[in-house]
Amino acid sequence: MSNTALIVIGHTALDFVYRIDAFPPKPVKVRAREHVTSGGGMAANAACAAARLGANTALWSRIGSDPASRIILDELQKFGVDTTYVKAHPASRSATAAVIVDAAGERFIVSEDDHAMPMSADWLPLEDIGKANAILSDLSWIEGTRAAFAEARARNITTLVDLDLGSGRLLESVAQFTDYVIASTPALDTFISGSTTEDRLRALVNQGARHAGVTRGSEGYFWTDASGKINRQPSFHTTVHDTTGAGDAFHGAFAAALIGGFSDAKCARFAAAAAALNCRGLGARTALPARADVDALLATQPAAI
Predict the structure, then answer these.
(1) In 10 A of CB 302, how many CB atoms?
(2) What is the mean pLDDT of residues 222-249?
(3) What tens digit of pLDDT does each residue of 65-95 get?
(4) What is the CA radius of gyration of the chain?
(5) Exposed/middle/buried for 87, CB within 10 Å: 0-12, 13-18, 19+?
(6) Dihedral of CA 146/129/255/211: which sign?
(7) Does the structure show a pLDDT above 90 at 107?
(8) Pairing, β 34-40 against β 13-19
(9) Which run of H or of E encompasses 31?
(10) What's the rounded Cα separation, in Å, for the pair 31 and 22?
(11) What is the 3-state secondary structure (H, E, C) of 205-271?
């Protein structure tokens, strides 16, 4: 692992994505217009996004020993993600999801995880954290995150959290080790106290985060830091085919920009462009942009305000 590395910790899955014209008002058989089978999972998608943008990226995760696991690994390796520490557990099932997308790009997701998947993180190579520039976690594997974040803090390595509804309640267990918190709007509203978005972001900084932000779809990205000032990065306008994985692309791109030496404002702008471009294809990874794609979009639209 080089000295410009990103380690991503958390969920990886196999997605079965179907495009339909519209969600029916009641249960009925519907014919799909389009279908893809794709790697999924928040951490895995973020890792692929970062790697696609040129970051030397490793994923630390858990999968089963089943047919889905081979596809999951192939998909990760296709993007150049180091899967050395994606551990296949015998007698466990890999996570899967059915993703239904309508003509407007909105989604309905049904996911399944093996609740018997071993949670132990004692096999992780924590010494590798000293070779990394940042650690990103989606909190779905809290045992791995705690161990890695504690080591990162001891070594002064930057940590980032993807705060989502599925695992946001676990933030408090690693808050003392967390530098950047980037939340979805539902997660911020659910897990962080405050009467407004601004109050909740400032609360995260008061709890110890250096940077606290929230993605708000078409409204853009809002964040603050120790200054207390609320900053906004507008969203970029692109053709929306599917919003699956847009948030994951944002997190991966933000982390890639951060280890590249960008300021927080430039990280937000870079990540917003990458997330917008990712909406061009069906599934979380079909349209993941390369660095040249992001740079081209950045050249056409205004900077942060």
Answers:
(1) 9
(2) 94
(3) 999 999 999 999 999 999 999 999 998 999 9
(4) 18
(5) middle
(6) positive
(7) no
(8) antiparallel
(9) none
(10) 11
(11) HHCCCCEEEEECHHHCEEEECCCCCCEEECCCCCCCCCCCCHHHHHHHHHHHHHHCCCCHHHHHHHH
Is 3 a residue whose pLDDT tops 70?
no
Helix (H) or strand (E) holding 61: strand 56-64
Position 27 pLDDT exceeds 70: yes
Q: What pLDDT was estimated at residue 2?
A: 44
CA-CA distances (angstroms) from residue 18 to 67, 185, 192?
20, 25, 34
State how far Cα 19 lies from the chain centre. Answer: 22
Q: Which residue matches tokens 């899955």?
A: 13
User: Mind spelling out the 3-state secondary structure of 97-129?
Assistant: EEEEECCCCCEEEEEECCCCCCCCCCCCCHHHH
Structure tokens at 117: 């998947």
Contact 302, 234 (CB under 8 A): yes
Give the position of tokens 């990540």. Answer: 271
Least confident of 109-113, 132-136, 274-278: 109-113
Single-letter amino acid, residue 119: M
Distance CA 78, CA 240 (A): 24
Name the band, by pLDDT with cuts 50, 70 and 90, for residue 4.
low
Q: Which pTM was predicted?
A: 0.95
Quick one: tokens of 127?
A: 């010494």
DSSP string, 112-175: E--TTS----TTS-GGGGGGEEEEEE-SSSHHHHHHHHHHHHHTT-EEEEEE-TTTGGGGGGTG
Q: Give the per-residue pLDDT at 1.
A: 40
Q: How many other CB atoms are there within 10 angstroms of residue 36's CB atom?
A: 18
**Cβ contact 37:69 at 8 Å:** no
